[in-house]
Amino acid sequence: MQRVRVILFLTILGASVLEEGTVAAATSSTRTSAIGTVSFRLHVSGTVPATMTFWAAYGPVEGRFGLVQLKQTSSGQFTGGALLPTGKSGIVSYLAGRGVVQTRFGPAPGNPVFTIRRTAKIPLSTRTLPLVRWSAPQG
After folding, report:
1. pLDDT score of 66 more than 80
2. β-bridge mates for residue 109, sequence order
3. Alpha carbons 62 and 9: distance in angstroms, whole number
4. Neighbours of 7 (CB within 10 A)
5. Do residues 38 and 57 lie in contact, with contact meaning Cβ atoms separated by under 8 Å?
6. Torsional sign, CA 44, 46, 47, 49
């Protein structure tokens, strides 16, 4: 009987140690930075086809990459936003495409896609990124 008590005691003790270790490991691995909305802005001058769409691609931000469609907010002004960790940096590419295609990862620019501007690594702690200006090619 004594032997059964010792085995039971060691089993309970071992389970509680493993459970505490698991909780500690889960807590430390799920810790993330605070999240905030970052706004991407593009000003387009000139005439563009009605089917042209504008996008901001970003990453890596804490190992994540993303693609945001910019929507027209006024004449020539396009804006979009993404929830990103504060205090981090990343590269942003502003893109133009023809229409929208649906992919398994979500909407994306249709072909042909070309890069309007690619930034160097910039701090995304600024909630509204600097305005990017682009003149559409004529002809």
Report:
1. yes
2. 100
3. 43
4. 10
5. no
6. negative
What does the pLDDT look like over 17-35, one tens digit per residue? 333 333 333 333 445 568 8
Q: Of 99, 93, 138, give the one whose Cα is nearest residue 118.
A: 93
CA–CA separation, 92 and 118 (whole Å):
6
Residues 98-116 have a mean pLDDT of: 95
Q: Which two tokens stand for residue 23?
A: 């909780």
With cut-offs at 50, 70 and 90, classify the pLDDT of residue 137: confident
Q: Would you call 103 exposed, middle or buried from its count of C-beta atoms within 10 A (0-12, 13-18, 19+)?
A: exposed
Indicate the pTM of the whole model: 0.73
- DSSP conformational letter for 51: T
